[in-house]
Specification:
Blueprint lengths: L2 E7 L6 E7 L7 E11 L3 H5 L16 E8 L11 E4 L10 H4 L23 E5 L4 E2 L6 H4 L5 H10 L8 E5 L5 H10 L3 E6 L5 H7 L3 E4 L5 H7 L3 E6 L4 H5 L5 E9 L11 H7 L2 E4 L5 H14 L5 E5 L3 H9 L6 E5 L1
Parallel strand pairs: 8-9, 8-11, 9-10, 11-12, 12-13, 14-15
Antiparallel strand pairs: 1-2, 3-4, 3-6, 3-15, 4-5, 5-7
Helix pairs in contact: 4-5, 4-10
Length: about 325
């Protein structure tokens, strides 16, 4: 039986170790992908800590993978060996449950997520459902495409589904793996773009990414600064802090939207009175389907939006994970195979 290298986590909180794993052929409606790159996402730490139900140990992390179709299972019609594909948080859906039949694929009752429901992309090879595959356009490298499957589609899709129009004031809270893409997408969509982060040192970086304004949340009242700029039509909250999210609400204009994409279990301290008086909306946004990922990559190619990454070989997965986990990563770590 042929084997491939994969990174294993033996139990919750255990070290990341490189292991030899049997390389299986894909079953019906699946493909096997030769992985070329995989992003290291902040949510990986939650999987590593065992915070998701039903995890199967040993666990292979990674839900931002890109590579080449190496084998095709029976029933797969739209992809062939040699195709360049990406798989993100959306790792396949059933097309049979009521949410799927209503077109709510992100709420599929049997939706699969790489590393949660099948081994993820910290590996040389991954078997995934064909419904999860997003075709990578020519002009995007595997390293550029990998983060688009989660960080990219989450921010792009989160912004384009709001009511904001070109010229409106849109703020991005948190300037990390998601936020640095959110700033670029907001600018490319024609929004007057505000970046919100901690510390004066971030201003030069966010201006280079395309932000028109910067608010240092350690030195200013965020809501007051947003109101001074005219009030935000949208705040895209990528920072995993309920307190930081809540601090932006009073800076929304009438009928403004707080779009939450930063994952945190903390309750959001928002007053219903504030929501009612100004007609505000608080929206939870999941990432996006395989087609959404394709549209994200296409828009990125058209506009020049790219993830800023630090690359590490698969054998250094533990070091890349630690850099992400401790906040030492510069925007996005990507493992390369």
């Amino acid at each position: 039986m042929p084997t491939h290298k994969a990174v294993h986590v033996a139990a919750a909180g255990a070290p990341l170790t490189l292991a030899d794993v049997e390389t299986n052929s894909p079953p019906r409606d699946h493909v096997r992908i030769a992985v070329a790159a995989c992003g290291v996402c902040g949510t990986d730490r939650e999987f590593h800590a065992g915070h998701f139900p039903g995890l199967q140990w040993p666990l292979t992390l990674g839900h931002e993978l890109a590579g080449t179709v190496a084998e095709v299972g029976d029933g797969v019609e739209d992809f062939a060996v040699g195709d360049r594909v990406a798989v993100g948080w959306f790792g396949g859906n059933c097309n049979r449950c009521v949410p799927c039949r209503r077109g709510y694929f992100m709420q599929c009752e049997r939706m699969q997520v790489p590393s949660w429901h099948y081994p993820g992309g910290y590996a040389e090879s991954v078997v995934a459902p064909a419904t999860a595959l997003a075709a990578i356009p020519d002009g995007l490298s595997f390293v550029e495409a990998a983060p688009m499957g989660c960080a990219g589609v989450t921010t792009f899709n989160g912004l384009r589904r709001t009511r904001a129009k070109a010229g409106d004031l849109v703020a991005v809270l948190g300037i990390g793996g998601l936020g640095h893409l959110g700033i670029q997408f907001a600018r490319a969509m024609g929004f007057e773009t505000v970046a919100i982060a901690r510390g004066a040192a971030r201003e030069a970086d966010v201006k280079e990414l395309g932000a028109h304004h910067y608010i240092d949340s350690t030195a200013a009242d965020v809501a007051a600064e947003l109101r001074r700029l005219g009030g935000a039509a949208v705040v895209l909250a990528t920072a995993a802090s309920s307190q930081a999210m809540a601090a932006t609400v009073a800076g929304l204009r009438a009928e403004g939207e707080l779009v939450t994409v930063g994952v945190t279990p903390e309750n959001l301290p928002v007053s219903p009175l504030d929501l009612i008086n100004s007609g505000l909306s608080v929206i939870g946004h999941p990432s996006g389907t395989a087609r959404d990922v394709e549209e994200t990559m296409h828009f990125a190619l058209l506009t020049g939006v790219r993830p800023i990454v630090e690359e590490r070989p698969l054998a250094q997965a533990a070091e890349a994970f630690e850099a992400m986990d401790t906040g030492k990563a510069h925007y996005r770590m990507v493992l390369t195979v």
